[in-house]
Amino acid sequence: MDTIWLSGAQWLAVLRIGLGLWWLESWRHKDKKGWFERGTGIAWAADVAAEHRWGVVRSGFRRVVAPRPRVMAYVVVYAELALGLGLITGFLTPVALAGGLLLNVLYFSLMIHDWAEQGQNLMMALISTVALFGMSWQTWSLDAALGWLP
Asked: CA–CA separation, 121 vs 22, rounded Å?
């Protein structure tokens, strides 16, 4: 593959690292005190889920998230941190990309009626897919340095 300036594998690594920085920024800008102590993030999501047009989202939220809001707040916030760090460093990259894709699909499903949020989720999902199938861990990653993945 001919590219300008960097190789194709290096451009995929740039894409992976950029996505990791995006996840890290998503983690950084969260009001952690609000999420962990006051439950603002999960309370907001509960309001959205309660009015959701899809019954599977309403019932899934009631069964999985609502009974354990504090735990789920930690899961969401620290998943974003783990995804960011994993993608930036290239550590367990396929796991991080698949996990990020799953989280974006969940966010997309929850916020299906809010098109302002959908652009971010769709772009992040697209980047995850390209980085995953392009095997973006081949360059500039701990996975490559440790010889864990092809």
From this structure: 11
Maximal C-alpha separation, the chain: 52
Give Cβ neighbours of residue 53 (< 8 Å, ≥ 6 apart). Answer: 112, 113
Banded model confidence at residue 3, pLDDT cuts 50, 70, 90: confident
Per-residue H/E/C for the chain: CCCCCCCHHHHHHHHHHHHHHHHHHHHHCCCHHHHHHHCHHHHHHHHHHHCCCCHHHHHHHHHHHCCCHHHHHHHHHHHHHHHHHHHHHCCCHHHHHHHHHHHHHHHHHHCCCCHHHHHHHHHHHHHHHHHHHCCHHHCCCHHHHHCCCC
Task: Report how far residue 86's alpha carbon sits from residue 28's, in angstroms, rounded to the nearest whole number.
Answer: 15
Pair of tokens at residue 61:
């939220």
Averaged pLDDT for residues 85-106: 97
Q: Give the separation between CA 150 and CA 146, rounded to whole angstroms.
A: 11
Say if pTM beats, i.e. exceeds, 0.90.
yes
Written as six digits, the tokens of 124 are 């992040």
pLDDT at position 21, please? 98
